[in-house]
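Saturday, quiet lab. Running sequence design on the structure tokens for the scaffold JK sent over.
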């Protein structure tokens, strides 16, 4: 998960302004929900093609949560950060129907982050999951929306910020502050940062609800990690040669090595899968190489 600047993409026309399709649908929904016993309302505007296109542009065809590439291999789920129909943790809540077609409430998601089903999961040793069923865990967001505040916003006029959403919306809260990359048994895992002796609550809720260590996802991330590491090993070989070469050959080898290291940051570009994991890995490897080969870089 990586920070995304939502303002970098214009609000889709279907959702923008008092005469938009979204505004008209919201007016119909407001009339519908005046009846407390009303049946479910069918929302359609958030599915419009310009909305899907804008979200795919904003998130570079990736899932907002796990950073898997999705556009080319499966339909993009248009995910409501605040669920539009019901809240699993708050029975009787009508859902945030007034945000059903709000640009700020919509994200691109892969099916497995957005829908609840059973998965094999790589667990963290210090934060094991609950409710295992035959080696699998029931994960995915669906209608889950845990909060750290006292009460849920039940109407559009309530203070939504006071809810203190426990899940990370990467367009509102920087994931790097709350999540950290881990390597356990050679696998690329993610978990909450540790604050003293306490696990960061936003990071903990987020990685668990979205299942960010589900088996298939971990395998894909680890494959990218190993790919990067193999190239770092090659760069180290160039630096080791530079240590025993006379000038100007030593400087030429050093420059080549660090140019190749810099080029690896292309894998950390926003349009690349697992870019947050790659950047964290490369930043650590760069610091290590600069320290180990200090005689070459000073």
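Result came back. Writing it out in full:
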């Amino acid at each position: 998960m990586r920070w995304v600047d939502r303002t970098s993409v214009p609000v889709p026309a279907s959702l923008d302004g008092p005469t938009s399709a979204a505004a008209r649908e919201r007016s119909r929904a407001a009339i519908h929900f005046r009846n407390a016993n009303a049946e479910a309302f069918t929302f359609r505007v958030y599915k419009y093609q310009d909305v899907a296109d804008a979200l795919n542009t904003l998130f570079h065809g990736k899932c907002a949560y796990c950073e898997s590439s999705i556009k080319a291999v499966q339909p993009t789920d248009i995910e409501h950060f605040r669920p539009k129909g019901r809240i699993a943790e708050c029975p009787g809540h009508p859902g945030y129907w007034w945000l059903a077609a709000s640009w700020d409430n919509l994200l691109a998601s892969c099916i497995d982050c957005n829908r609840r089903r059973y998965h094999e999961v790589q667990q963290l040793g210090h934060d094991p999951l609950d409710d295992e069923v035959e080696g699998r865990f029931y994960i995915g967001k669906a209608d889950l929306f845990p909060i750290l505040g006292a009460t849920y916003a039940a109407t559009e006029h309530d203070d939504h910020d006071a809810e203190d959403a426990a899940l990370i919306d990467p367009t509102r809260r920087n994931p790097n502050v709350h999540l950290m990359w881990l390597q356990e048994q050679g696998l690329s895992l993610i978990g909450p940062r540790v604050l003293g002796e306490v696990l960061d609550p936003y990071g903990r809720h987020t990685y668990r609800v979205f299942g960010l260590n589900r088996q298939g996802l971990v395998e894909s991330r680890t494959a990218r990690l190993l790919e990067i590491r193999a190239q770092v090993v090659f760069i180290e070989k160039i630096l080791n040669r530079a240590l025993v070469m006379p000038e100007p050959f030593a400087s030429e080898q050093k420059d080549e090595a660090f140019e190749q290291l810099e080029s690896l940051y292309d894998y950390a570009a926003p349009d690349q899968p697992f870019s947050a994991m790659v950047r964290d890995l490369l930043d650590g490897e760069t610091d290590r190489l600069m320290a180990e080969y200090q005689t070459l870089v000073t």
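Notes for JK: Residues 6-156+164-213 form one domain. The mean pLDDT is 94. Ask whether to fix the surface positions before the next round.
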